[in-house]
Write a structure and sequence with these properties.
heterodimer; A: 661 residues; alpha/beta; FAD/NAD(P)-binding domain; 5 domains; 34 strands; 28% helix; B: 333 residues; 6-stranded mixed β-sheet; 3-stranded antiparallel β-sheet; binds flavin-adenine dinucleotide; binds iron/sulfur cluster
Chain lengths: 661, 333
């Protein structure tokens, strides 16, 4: 005999204002199996929980429905309360009458009706619930950080500091990410490498951190607490432990046509190179597309000049396999391709550059040694026009619909630095809005406009073209309400930023969810901002959304603290809502195995007694430790052999039927 | 066709005689010569009834689930199966799904020039049909009847499934008896689907309502379908909550077909058996072809059963997969 209790929460006025809770209680009382129903102002409060506990004891309830907020909020709370009163926690169902009902409706009559429907569905489901018992799984005390930008470095440092080993996998030959390419940083204008290099060195020397550079994660399996990753360490053709970073090879290499990625392709580098002076590891790498020896078998100069004997043309990709308890995604970003925007003539005029290119031009280690020179003829520019929001806040489909967040600030930074160092240069900035929310940000921007006389023009640029050795910019000044045409020497485009192109692949590998712009999604945008909805996967830096360095670093620390919390546990309780295959119904067709994202399904061939018919059959077996209860297999199984505990096909059908009643 | 037919029958006898196989899964004439039905021949003697002619449309692949499982125990010998080119797709799909024990099967690929539909011959005014013979030349058949003789163009009397033949190439076999050159697929098999797509949702609903309300729930489509090969079909399983054997209401008749179409999506090889066996003449293949067309459009050309061991697009995930938002047009499509 089922003895069910239904508890209806008001959530203050959150629910009660749009749902007539008395009616929900009255209707609950007449549902089959329901012996008790009551409403209360805040069910999640201690008093509310006591109502539940007391009712379970007093009425001998063997299943309960709480009509309240999303199970994401308080399912755990109510399960705990039920357990404390002696009820199996999996005999608790939540009817979400807040997010799914009161918050999205205005009409109280309709809202009440819907709340009743949701309550009925939950009652129909709980009638079919069975007590379940959670298992336990191990926690591997090692973390993996994918991406070695400032986000990845900071996360790794914090985890290592708590005593746990961390691996950083970085796809480039050095860690550092985009921050290493920046010249000075807003809002304090300190030199980027001066503050980044110590962190990079610390990451290198910390004994809990292993740097795996020039490497990519190829495969990930497993689940929170025990992931398995396969990492491909690409051949550098230089022995990492032998190279001293002296750089002699670079000066002797005859193949010097490779584009220098670190300088955004503004100058060239040899086939063997160290990305930049402060690179970590400070080890050379051979670009195999440029190396003469690797392509034709001839040359071999670098091997001859390397006194350390570090060159090895026969080096192969290596694979590292390792287990991890937690994985942090810190894959960062890249600027979008500006050549899509013909009106700015980026691909046809050399003197139209992106902001990141300007960072390199202004940097002492950059292609011009830090002297502001125009790329076309190396002359000093007398006027520069900045264009903000290139491809940001663009709903036309050419660019990105979001605000890239950092461009207003770095453009103010660029404008101010140029005016400071070269007071003869006129600086104009075209903007849609200037957005400066952040500590000391507005002050920073005002200093540029007021103190440094940067000419801010509210309006957009329609066209940039070259004429008689200089650039012409046509735009509108919305405040003066007139078209303006400016002659200038350089145009700088503040291009939108987008997630690293590998983000989607990495996210798929980790089964982490991703939004339409390929930014990784948080488990909850406000309350769980550094966790992915996939347990054990954490987010750090710009891969989650545009942000500047201070924000990146705080998020990196937050992600680290979540990882530390996880790795500090000795055991994790596993979700008992796992799949199970009925061997009498199973065809052994392998459809389920192919869709299981966690590799939880395998096959066994054994003798089966199907109502007297004895047959050797191939049947599906679910590894309960690996199954995450996603339900993909139950949907693909044609015969209905596969079913999910706690969310059985029957339970779902019962809910649907209760709704359609 | 005549020559191939004689060779096939002779070869089947030989293989049984020399002990290569201990059973033959082939066709046998029923009450009338055009009622050829699948049959399992277990003795050399019984093979006198084996036929291979223009009416052997039935796909024998599914029979190999039961017949390939070594139920006869040790040394029971292989089972010979005769497969037309299109049947080999179904056979492969069943291999992919681990439903057939390949070890126990000997496949004789048999050439095919198109199978005939007796109803289409009748529609051309023939009554009391006593025989259908290959004409000496051209693309014609000679129909003998109680009342005399006549000729028909073969293309006019083919089975619906043969109108859009996949091609004459066998995708799997141990031995081949065929005179055909593979000329690739015939006709445009998605024509009917395009017509349906061009309809408004209301028109389409009315179309299916009219067609599906003819269904008498005889289950012939399901029983003949090589993709519908579950040990226990959900419609026979009382615990599934959707079991039923009769058309109790109009909702139920539609749900049967829609559920079935979903179950076979991505696994259906378009063998055409469902439409061939339906006594009510319901164009069931249109469901399957709609899915096949969508799969082709969304994931690139895919033919279930082209090879054994394929990984169908609906049960594999890649980064290039279409996002649901792009695949679904709200308001019906
Ligand atoms: C022009 C410009 C100027 C800026 N100026 C400032 C400023 O003045 N002040 C400020 O606060 N911020 C500034 N920023 C923002 C700053 O650059 C970012 O906030 C910061 O770099 C974000 O760090 P990150 O680690 O998240 O990403 P990144 O720096 O992009 O690092 C990501 C790292 O992950 C690696 N990676 C990516 N994919 C993989 C993979 N699949 N496997 C392994 N490794 C991978 C990348 O190679 C990279 O090393 C500026 C940005 C731009 C574009
Ligand atoms: S529910 Fe099924 S598909 Fe999902 S993880 Fe478990 S076994 Fe795999
Ligand atoms: S999908 Fe269903 S029938 Fe096929 S192997 Fe899995 S459980 Fe068995
Ligand atoms: S209808 Fe579905 S359950 Fe029934 S046999 Fe076909 S695939 Fe299997
Ligand atoms: S064969 Fe035709 S009548 Fe019979 S169940 Fe299938 S669709 Fe209905």
């Amino acid at each position: 005999m089922q003895r069910l209790g239904v508890f209806v929460c008001w959530c203050g006025s959150n629910i009660a204002a749009t749902v007539d809770v008395d009616r929900v209680v009255a209707e609950a009382k007449v549902q089959p199996g329901v012996v008790f129903a009551q409403d209360y102002q805040y069910m999640c409060s201690e008093a509310g929980q006591n109502i539940i506990k007391d009712a379970i004891k007093q009425y001998g309830l063997n299943g309960i429905v709480v009509c309240s907020c999303s199970p994401r909020m308080h399912e755990a709370t109510f399960r705990k309360a039920a357990e404390a009163a002696g009820l199996n926690p999996y005999m608790v169902e939540i009817a979400n009458i807040r997010e799914h009902c009161s918050w999205i409706h205005k009409d109280k009559e309709a809202g009440t009706e819907k709340a009743c429907v949701l309550m009925r569905a939950a009652v129909a489901k709980v009638l079919l619930n069975t007590p379940l018992k959670a298992g336990e799984s191990k926690v591997v005390k090692r973390a993996l950080v994918i991406g070695g930008g400032i986000a990845g470095i900071q996360t790794a440092l914090d985890i290592a500091d708590a005593g746990f080993p961390v691996d950083i996998v970085e796809k480039n030959a050095t860690i550092g990410g985009r921050m290493a390419q920046l010249d000075k940083t807003f809002p304090t204008l300190d030199c980027s490498s001066c503050i980044l290099t110590p962190k990079m060195v610390e990451a290198k020397t910390n004994e809990n951190i292993r740097l795996i550079t020039y490497a990519e994660v190829e495969e990930v399996s497993g689940f929170v607490g025990s992931f398995k990753a396969k990492i491909r360490k690409k051949a550098r053709f230089v022995k990492e432990d032998v190279c001293t970073g002296c750089g002699v090879c670079m000066s002797k290499c005859p193949s010097k046509k490779g584009l220098n990625e670190f300088n955004m392709g503004l100058n060239n580098r040899p086939a063997i190179y160290i990305p930049f002076a402060q690179a970590i590891p400070n080890v050379a790498v051979i670009d195999k597309t440029q190396c003469i020896k690797l392509n034709t078998g001839k040359c071999g100069l670098c091997e001859k000049v390397c006194t350390a004997g570090a060159i090895d043309y026969t080096q192969q990709d290596e694979f590292i396999e390792e287990e991890y308890g937690a994985i942090v995604m810190a894959t960062g970003f890249r600027p979008i391709d500006a050549s899509k925007f013909d009106e700015y003539s980026y691909s046809t005029c050399k003197d139209v550059v992106t902001s990141l290119e300007l960072e390199r031009i202004m940097n002492a280690a950059g292609p011009t040694g830090g002297v502001l020179l125009r790329p076309s003829d190396g002359k000093h520019p007398h006027s520069i026009v900045f264009v903000q929001c290139v491809g940001s806040r663009d709903v036309s489909g050419r660019g990105k619909p979001y605000c890239s967040k950092i461009c207003c600030m770095y453009t103010a930074k660029h404008a101010m630095l140029i005016r400071d160092k070269y007071p003869d240069v006129e600086v104009h900035v075209f903007y849609i809005d200037v957005r400066t929310p952040g500590k000391n940000f507005d002050e920073f921007y005002r200093r540029a406009a007021e103190q440094y006389d940067v000419d801010y023009i509210k309006g957009q640029v329609g066209k940039v073209w070259e004429e008689d050795g200089h650039l012409v910019v046509r735009g509108v000044d919305l405040i003066a309400n007139e078209q303006i045409v400016l002659n200038t020497d350089m145009v700088v485009l503040a291009t939108a930023i987008e997630p690293d192109p590998t983000a989607r692949k990495v996210a798929n590998m980790l089964t982490a969810s991703i939004d339409t712009n390929d930014f990784i999604t948080e488990a909850h945008p406000k309350l769980r901002p550094v966790e992915s909805p996939t347990a054990g996967i954490f987010l750090s830096g710009v891969c989650q959304g545009p942000k500047d360095i201070p924000e990146t670093v705080s998020q990196a620390g937050a992600a680290a603290s979540k990882v530390i919390g996880l790795l500090s546990k000795n055991k994790l309780t596993t979700n008992p809502c796992v799949a199970h295959s009925d061997e009498l119904l199973c065809n052994g067709c392998s459809c389920c195995e192919k869709v299981c994202p966690y590799g939880a399904i395998s096959y066994d061939t054994h003798l089966i007694n199907d109502h007297g018919v004895k047959e050797t059959r191939r049947v599906a077996l679910v590894n309960e430790a690996l199954c995450q209860g996603c339900g993909a297999c139950t949907v693909v199984c044609p015969s209905g052999a596969m079913d999910l505990k706690g969310f059985s096909n029957k339970q779902i059908m019962a809910e649907v039927e209760a709704i359609c009643l | 066709m005549q020559k191939v037919s004689e060779k096939v029958i002779a070869r089947a006898r030989e293989l049984m005689h020399d002990g290569t196989v201990s059973k033959v899964v082939g066709w046998k004439a029923g009450e009338f010569f055009y009622d050829c039905e699948p049959n399992v021949f277990e003795t050399e003697e019984s093979l006198k009834d084996l036929v291979y002619n223009r009416f052997c449309g039935a796909n024998l692949s599914k029979y190999m689930i039961k017949n390939s499982i070594a139920s006869g125990g040790e040394g029971a010998g292989k089972v010979l199966v005769l497969l037309k080119p299109c049947d080999t797709y179904s056979f492969n799909q069943l291999l992919t799904e681990h439903r057939i024990d390949r070890e126990n099967v000997y496949i004789l690929g048999v050439g095919c020039e198109g199978m005939c539909d007796i109803d289409r011959i009748r529609e051309r005014g023939f009554k009391g049909i006593t025989g259908v013979l290959e004409a000496d030349s051209g693309n014609e058949l000679v129909i003998t009847t109680l009342y005399g003789e006549g000729k028909v163009n073969i293309d006019d009397v083919l089975l619906n499934k043969c109108d859009s033949c996949k091609g004459k190439a066998h995708k799997i076999y141990d031995e081949l008896i065929s005179d055909n050159e593979d000329e690739g697929p015939r006709g445009d098999r998605f024509e009917g689907v395009r017509e349906l797509e061009a309809m408004s949702p209301e028109q389409r609903f009315a179309f299916w309502q009219a067609e599906l309300s003819k269904c008498i729930r005889c289950n012939a489509c399901r029983n003949a379908c090589p993709a519908c090969s579950c040990r226990k079909c959900v419609f026979d399983n009382n615990a599934s909550g959707i079991a039923s054997k009769a058309n109790t209401d109009s909702f139920e008749e539609k749900m049967f077909h829609i559920i079935r179409a979903f179950h076979v999506a991505g696994r259906c090889t378009d063998c055409g058996e469902c439409t061939r066996v339906c006594p009510q003449g319901i164009p069931l293949h249109l469901f399957n072809r709609k899915y096949i067309k969508d799969i082709n459009d969304f994931y690139g050309e895919y033919a279930a059963g082209e090879e054994a061991g394929q990984r169908g697009p609906l049960i594999s995930f890649t980064e290039q997969d279409i996002e649901p938002g792009h695949a679904v047009v709200k308001g019906g499509n």
